[in-house]
Give the backbone structure.
Amino acid sequence: KSFLKNDIQVFHIWEDDWIYKQDIVKSMILNKLGKTPNKIFARKCKVKEITDNKLIRDFLNSNHIQGFVGSKIKLGLFYNDELVSIMTFGNLRKSLGQKSQEGSFEMLRFCNKLHTSVIGGASKLFKYFLENYKPTEIISYSDSSRSQGGLYKQLGFNLIHETEPNYYWIVDGIRHHRFNFRKDKLVKEGADPNKTEIQIMMDKGYHRIFDCGNKKW
């Protein structure tokens, strides 16, 4: 926040991302600097709905910093029959304390192929979704450690609120969302019910690390 007040955008690089997803991090840095080497115009691409879950999994794990997440609707942009950009949607996630309603969706993932900028790609995919699924509500989240949510402003989203920093547990050198280590789950696995989640995890020798919070759009 101190940097942002001085009009400096901060881009955090987490150690596990640098070790395991360095190509994705480098692609993101080049994009931030406006130096993405390959540029494609969305008007030269075709929108297709994708049913091949393996294709989605492989593309997200290779090109999105947060990797694969299951989704209901998977839209892809294809250039000369090659998948170059995807946008996925699903029901509102229980892990984020949300309840799904008819017509409510969460935009889960959007990314382009590494080192590729698809000019107008996000708008084209989003427009297709609006026209074909007629949602009553779409929400999404941006990670404040890497982004100020410019894409969402571009697509017409409104900022609802900004969350406080959240924490992750470091297990085997990788950050894991705290939802996977809830106290009720730890107790079922034999942990002391009189201790808190944090006490249990620290007794096990795990460390916490905090992010910069999220923006909800």
